């Protein structure tokens, strides 16, 4: 809301500067959801960034903002919210789901 009501008209990165790998992200998702999905590894695109750590200096300076929720906690809150909205039914029996990693 601070950004939306500010005078700033240029992009402001509000990502999380705590860097983690896509594998760590996928494993955290599996842990939080209790999913039995299998991970599938594929080759990275040639232009894939090797670092994924946003600079949130502008958000800190302009908005006094920085993230306060860690990945696993945020995923759990999101999962709980969506479960409350759509129920807790999981995939149908025999359905195999896969998490793809780039």
What does this structure look like?
The structure is a single chain. 34% of the residues lie in helices and 8% in strands. It is built from three helices and two strands. It has a two-stranded parallel sheet with strand order 1-2. The model has no long low-confidence stretch (mean pLDDT 85).
Rg over CA atoms: 17 Å
Which percent band covers the strand fraction? Answer: 5-15%
* Integer average pLDDT: 85
Structural class: mainly alpha
User: Major β-sheet, in short?
Assistant: 2 strands, parallel
Strand order of the largest sheet: 1-2
Distance between the termini: 33 Å
How many E-type strands?
A: 2
Could you estimate the helical fraction of the residues in percent?
A: 25-40%
Helix count equals: 3
Poorly predicted runs are: none
Question: Which key terms come to mind for this protein?
Answer:
3 helices, single chain, 34% helix, mainly alpha, two-stranded parallel ribbon, 102 residues, 2 strands
List the helices and strands and how they pair.
Elements: H1 22-33, E1 38-41, H2 57-63, H3 71-86, E2 98-101
Parallel strand pairs: 1-2
Helix pairs in contact: 1-3
